[in-house]
Specification:
Blueprint (H helix, E strand, L loop, with lengths): L1 E6 L3 H8 L1 E3 L14 E6 L3 H4 L4 H6 L4 H5 L17 H7 L19 H4 L6 H5 L14 E9 L4 E8 L9 E6 L2 E4 L2 E4 L6 H8 L3 E3 L6 E3 L9 E6 L8 E2 L10 H18 L8 E7 L1 H19 L6 E9 L3 H14 L5 H12 L6 H14 L34 H9 L2 H7 L16 H4 L9 H9 L3 E7 L7 H9 L10 E5 L2 E8 L4 E6 L6 H4 L1 H13 L8
Parallel strand pairs: 6-11, 6-13, 13-14, 14-15, 15-18
Antiparallel strand pairs: 1-3, 2-3, 4-5, 5-11, 5-12, 7-8, 9-10, 16-17, 17-18
Length: 557
């Protein structure tokens, strides 16, 4: 049995569809939750283990909470594509202490002698000879921990896949944010693993087979274009940890950026051959915050040190949380423009949910219920993609095309990462946690302390400092859709330099691209969902290669 908190007005509809039983004895939880919330008990044990299929259950809750909320996670949190709602709502409630102010680096200065710890011999210890079930490869891989706060016992886990010709290629950091399912309400914010998604389902060198024991090569891995570093951040995500339990209650954007800077400074000591290498930061989803915030912190500390501590050259973010209000507005606009909801429903939502002058809660919720019913049976992270109907592991690996993404991949990754031999090979879980490793975890989201309403000033700062800035968007993602991204870019008030055109990959339209004065490039990836490299690996590799080279992908001019 699992207790879930949901809006009270939605009780009847949930009970009809999801085998729930109201608990009349628990209608309020003192003053912690508003009185219009009730608690339901879920009978179906399969719900707890669900990933993609859980979207059905989640989408039935008004998607108004999707962008007006912004994170509270529970044991149901499993899927990166599910965290874009409850945190926004929390940020808008005046009684919650979430700092939405302009982001600034957490530390005024980095005292290098205090934050950089001895790293001698640790690179060799981090070397991964071979992962269980791994095919033979010619590149090197490493995994291990970097302490970012010695007194707190806070350490971040990384996985590093070098390129075969590692000496000639740049260093690329990948960060996952998180979108996961929370208390039957969609939410977006931090909390998901870059190993689970970035490394094992998107752009890493391997994909997990359906047996949950073996791996196959990703022929479109990004270590064909760069040396790729995957970081699980902040502490509490994936294998990253803190020995100070209160850290999980005081995390926020600022601490995350600061810890990531300290991680990089120490990691570069461990891998000194990369100190002067061109460095790029990439990520998706809530990493729309992490990436520009880390860039800001790096620029800040480089300036204070009066030298290049980290050789930052560019940042790139995909289907990213950028600007609270335009992210919100673009969501239902996408539903309407892709015939997922009717024009009437969209107009009702726009009128009764968006406008202060005509806001009407009952009518808003009624329109949202219609929209939720319309999108109930979709994988909202890729509206044209099939759901996972059978996530059971198979005795023998299923053979699939390199361009095909298995909708049940989350299940295989979960099984693989919870194998003790895998964790030993990765040099992970050194604290021997007593619970299952999960792709997304909840404690951070409940207590996140700061999340800026917008990162647009940081994107502009990077551009002004000569940092290459690209934004990309998979055009079949309904969670942080292309319409939201376009609205956020419009809010930057930039002048178009090279107008909208298609870009090509192997004679096919790979997407569309537009550039702006000041250096911003925006590109779409045709046929890709929220996790672009999962759904369109070849096009994603082409795009990241052009970003790293500083060239636009070819196409009609």
């Amino acid at each position: 049995m699992i207790w879930l908190q949901i809006p009270k007005w939605y009780d009847n509809q949930i009970q009809k569809s999801h085998n729930c039983i109201s608990n009349p004895k628990i209608t309020q939880l003192h003053d912690k939750y508003p009185s219009n919330y009730i608690f339901l008990k879920i009978k179906n044990k399969k719900i707890k283990k669900s990933t993609r299929t859980m979207g059905k259950l989640t989408f039935f809750i008004p998607l108004f909470t999707l962008f007006l909320s912004h994170f509270v996670a529970s044991s149901l949190a499993k899927r990166q594509g599910d965290v874009l709602g409850k945190f926004y709502k929390a940020k808008q409630k005046k009684d919650l202490a979430i700092d939405k102010s302009y982001f600034k680096a957490a530390l005024e200065n980095v005292e290098l002698d205090k934050v950089i710890l001895p790293q001698e011999g640790l690179k060799e210890k981090d070397w991964i000879e071979k992962l269980p079930g791994q095919p033979t490869v010619k590149f090197q891989q490493y995994g291990g921990y970097v302490t970012v706060n010695e007194s707190a016992g806070r350490a971040l886990y990384y996985y590093f896949s070098e390129a075969e010709n590692s000496k000639s290629l740049p260093l690329l950091l990948w960060l996952n944010g998180g979108i996961f399912k929370i208390l039957l309400i969609l939410s977006a914010g931090p909390g998901c693993s870059s190993i689970a998604y970035g490394a094992m389902e998107e752009l890493g060198p391997f994909r997990v087979n359906s047996d949950g024991k073996t791996l196959h090569r990703n022929h479109y891995a990004w270590n064909l274009a760069a040396n790729v570093l995957f970081l699980e951040s902040p502490a509490g995500v994936g294998f990253s940890y803190s020995n100070t339990s209160s850290d999980l209650k005081t995390s926020g954007d600022r601490r995350t950026a600061n810890d990531n800077v300290v991680f990089l400074l120490n990691w570069l000591e461990r891998f000194p051959e990369y100190k002067n290498r061109d460095f790029y930061i990439s990520g998706e989803s809530y990493a729309g915050h992490y990436v520009p915030q880390l860039a800001h912190a790096i620029l800040h500390h480089n300036n204070l040190a009066n030298k290049t501590l980290i050789n930052l050259k560019g940042i790139i973010i995909g289907n990213a949380v950028i600007n609270e209000w335009t992210d919100f507005l673009g969501n239902y606009e996408y539903f309407a423009s892709h015939a997922l909801i009717s024009d009437e429903t969209y107009l009702d939502i726009h009128k009764y949910c968006y406008s202060d002058n005509t806001y009407n809660k009952p009518k808003c919720y009624s329109a949202l219920e219609v929209a939720d019913n319309n999108t109930y049976n979709l994988d909202i992270y890729n509206i044209y993609f099939p759901l996972c109907h059978n996530g059971n592991l198979t005795k023998y690996p299923k053979i699939s095309s390199p361009l095909e993404f298995d909708p049940c991949s989350d299940k295989y990754v979960h099984a693989y990462m919870n194998r003790r031999d895998v964790q030993n090979a990765l040099h992970a879980n050194v604290t021997n946690i007593q619970y299952d490793w999960e792709a997304c975890r909840d404690p951070l989201s409940n207590n996140w302390t700061d999340s800026a309403a917008t990162v647009i000033p940081l994107l502009k700062e990077s551009l002004a400092k000569g940092v290459r800035v690209w934004i990309f968007s998979g055009d079949t993602d309904g969670r942080v859709p292309v319409t939201s991204t376009k609205r956020s870019i419009q809010a930057m008030n930039l002048t178009v330099d090279k107008p909208w055109r298609s870009w090509l990959y192997e004679g096919e339209v790979g997407g569309y691209v537009e550039t702006y004065e000041g250096g911003l490039t925006f590109a779409t990836v045709r046929g890709a969902g929220h996790e672009v490299p999962s759904y369109q690996p070849a096009r994603a590799l082409s795009l990241i290669s052009h970003f790293l080279f500083g060239t636009l992908p070819p196409g009609d001019f």
